[in-house]
Amino acid sequence: MNTIIKLFFLIVIIPEIIIAQKTKNNYKYNIDLLHMSNDEVRVSFSPPKNNLKQGRFIIPKLVPGFYQAMNFGQYVSHFTATDKNGKKILTERLDKNSWLIHDLNRVKKISYQVADGWDSLEKESNEARSAGSMFIKDSVSVINYNSLVGYFEEMKDIPYQITITKNKNFYASSALNYQQKNKNTDIVWAKDYRELVDSPVLYSVPDTTWLKIGHTKVLVSFYNKKERHYSKTIAHEIENILKNQQAYLGGTLPVNKYAFLIYYESSNENGYLGDGLEHSHSTVCLYRSGNMKFIPHALNRVASHEFFHVVTPLNIHSGEIQHYDFLNPVMSEHLWLYEGMTEYATIHMPIKQKMISLEDFEKSLEEKIKGMKEFDNTLSFTEMSKKSMERQDQYMNFYMKGALLGVCLDIRLRELSNGKIGTQDLMQMLMKKYGAGKYFNDNELFDEITKMTYPEIRTFFRDYIEDTQPIPLKEYLEKAGFNYDEATGKVTTLPNPDAKQLALRKAWINQ
C-alpha cells in the first residue's frame, strides 16, 4: 500500500570532505536569501578555470515550456567582475541578457543584484510568472534559476555548485537534493545548466508531504501566508491521479523523484488565477483565489497534464530541446507531440482508467472541439510549431486541435492493429528507443514512428500535421461507435453500434 509520510525538518551537517569531493572545476555560486533588501537578492560566483581573454555571460531570454521572450536579464543590475585582489575588471552589457567580460582568465568573482519578477499575483501581468522568481524576506522565495544564474557561452555543459544562505527555518522543496552545511546554509549540485534551470525550488517554512507511488518518491510542497497544514489534503488528491497514471503508463512511472511546488495567495475577490510550468521532475503551480477549497479540484487537471510531461519532452524529444539555446532557441516542429499528445493523455487517461463516465469523456471531446474552432485550423502544425514564438495567437490550439489529433491517431492505430496498439504503446516504444539523454532528429520522427507502426501512419502525419487537411474527427469517432454532429459540436454514442465499432471502442477507451 502506498503511504503518505509527513516530512520533518531536520538539520543535517555535511562533512567538509563530501563538499570537497564535489568541488571540481565548476561554476561556484552563492545566493543570499537572508540579507536581501527591496526584494533584491545578492548573487555572486566564481567562474570555472579558463584561459579565455574574454567571455560572453548569458542570462536566458526564454526557457523551455514557454514560447515568448521573457528577458530574465532585465532583473539583473550592479554587474561587476573583480580579480583575486578585488580590483575591478572591465565588463560591457551587450544587450538585455548578456555581458562581455574582458580578461576572463583573471576574474576571481562576478557579482550582481537580482530583482524579483513578481511580488504578488494580484497585479495583472502578461508574463508567465511561474518561469520567474519572487523573494519575500523571512516569508517565501519561489526560485527559477534561469532568473538568478547564468553561464558563459564559451563554457557550457559544466557542473554547478550553488550555496544558498537562507532563514534557518526554511526548507528547500525541489526535485534536486539540497543538503545543509549548517542551519543557515544549503548546498545543491547540478550536472549542468539545463538541469539547474529544470529544477525550481520553493523556500519557506515547510508544509510538505511525501508520497510513494511504486518506486517514485513524490514531494508535495505547499505555501500560503496563513495556512501551514494543507499539503496533506492536496497530496491525497494527487496520489489518486498518479496511481492511475502509473497504470496508464504500463505500471511504472518513468521518474524516481518528482516535486509539486504550489504557491497559494489568498484574495478577497471571486474567481481564481492560475499559472504553472512543468519541468522534467517537477511542476510549479501559482494560484490566487478567495477560497482555498478549489485547489485540489483545480490541481486534478493541471497535475495530470504536467506530470505526463515526464513522457515528453523528458523522455522523448528532439535535438533542439536536448541542446536548447537559452538566448536564441531554435524551435522543434513537434509541439503536436510535446503539448498535443500530453493533453490527449490527460483527457484519455481518466476514461481509460474508469475514473470518469462515458458522458464526461464526451464533454471533454466537445470542449476541445469548441476550443479548436477559435483558432485558424488551416495552418500546418509543424510550421506553426517552428514559428511558435511568432504565432502566439495560435499557440493554445496545440492543447485543442493537438489533443484531437491524438484522438484520431489513437483510433487509427487501434484500427490498423486490431486493437492491440494505441498511442499509449507508441509512447512506450518511443521511450525505449530514445529515453532521457537521447534525442531524435526533428525531420526524421515521422518516418521513425512509421517504421514502428504502419505505412498508413505516415499518410496520417503528412495529411493532418505536416499539411493542412481538416482532421477526420467525424469519420474516426464513428469507427469507435460515436456520432459527432459537426453543426452543433455534440459528441454522442451511436444508438446501435455494430460489433466492430464496439470492439474498437473497448480497445480505445476500455468501454
Automatic annotation (TrEMBL):
The keyword Transcription regulation does not apply. The keyword ATP-binding does not apply. Keywords: Plasmid. Residues 28-204 form the Peptidase M61 N-terminal domain. Residues 301-405 form the Peptidase M61 catalytic domain. It comes from the Bacteria. Signal peptide: none annotated. This is Peptidase M61. It comes from Chryseobacterium panacisoli.
